[in-house]
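User: What would this chain look like folded?
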Amino acid sequence: MKSKIIVRYYPLSPIANNVNFTLMEGNYIIASGSFTSIEECERILNKYFPDVSTEYLTIL
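Assistant: Here's the prediction, encoded as structure tokens.
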């Protein structure tokens, strides 16, 4: 079963900082923080959660 990642994305932020991850029921991960790009966000998520698929990356 693939996991889903829900990310709060702040595209105007110059750096990635204060990244907080919350594991939710049903293999959902909410990542709240500041990212300069979606690719950077995926890189950070893959670093901390290598077994979680970013295929269904959702930007809120």
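Residues 9-17 have pLDDT under 50 and may be disordered. If you want, I can go into more detail on any region.
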